[in-house]
Amino acid sequence: MLQSIERFIIMSTNQIIHLNKPPFIVPLYAKAMLNTVIKTLANTWSEQPFTDQYCISGQVIDLNNLQQYINCCGFKHTGYLPATYPFVIAFPLLMKLMTSKAFPVSILGLIHYSNRITQHAPIKQSATLTILCRVNNNHTSGKGRFIETHIDIFEDGKLVWECNSTFLQPLKRKASQIRPRNNVELDDQVMETISSFQFTALDALKYAYISKDTNPIHLHYIPAKLMGFKSTIMHGMLAKARVLAQLEVLIDIQRISINVQFKHAIYLPTQVCLNVALSQQNNRFSLMDSEQCVTHLSGVILPLLNRMN
Question: pTM for the whole thing?
Fold first, then answer.
């Protein structure tokens, strides 16, 4: 059965910071730059667990923004939110969390490593939502420092959507050299190419405006190169959304769990191919370059079998 927000709050032993309205993104990026400079010079980055949680209630859907998102990603107009759109709604709160003074790493140069979205129930465009954001895990490996964030979204007190995002602060080497862990388990089922489409710099600018993800590596080649990439790169979450939109005519994209590994950056402009293997148990996919040599992302969509209202 769907879980209630009251249960989450009772179970939590960490501080929950309640906000009255969504944070404004631009000052948060400025704050991130300032924190990075100060903490790097003073060497005061925290090694302690980050325990604060951020919450906002009464969040309504910006219908104009939703329509822009649907058009940008290629979804159909159904009266419900695409399963990837709540990430856009929650993004300002996630940024507030990740630019907190106590957050253990700088968001500048972080790599979005993997993302898992679980939509427990369809969300209507008229819904009023409560969003809760926290850090789930924080560990260091030979590749760098991994930070796992978690977002829960509730409607009428019931959990309808959740998301785990893993970010990597790499060791001092080019970001393009980082390879993800193979924690999306894939079988040997043969994939079929079902579509080919292009990503352009204009797509990145449109998505940055719609999603408020104005990370400079998506906007211009100079900051991208400073962060270790050879050119401007596409937003991973737009690539994930485009994949889901392409599959909308083939599978149910509402009550699902969609798990993605971001593998190689999508440099702009570029042509990509979507390969899929569909079955009743799971739907696997990969997004590759036009030569079918480089995998930009891969993942799996699992139907939620227990469909409770």
Answer: 0.89
